Amino acid sequence: MEKSLSMAFAPTGEVVEYDLRHLSLYAAILDVVASSTDWRESASRLMKLDIDDPRAQACWLSHVERARWIVGAGLASAIEAFGLVK
Known about the structure:
This protein is mostly helical. It has 5 helices and no strands. It has one domain.
């Protein structure tokens, strides 16, 4: 069984190593949000969250917000932090 994120909320503020490790998750999250897939199905499938846990939706939403930030306002910071520009 794949490991869940154990209700770990996405970071806020500066780009951190967690973001680099979860870029593919952020991309998948943005895809399912754009397709209007139910958050419960997506959180269960992508993050292995227990959707019956009262914290699940908040955890999911923190990752949605972070994914949007990474590709929006945080993009320049992410590119610099991940060493994509020298």
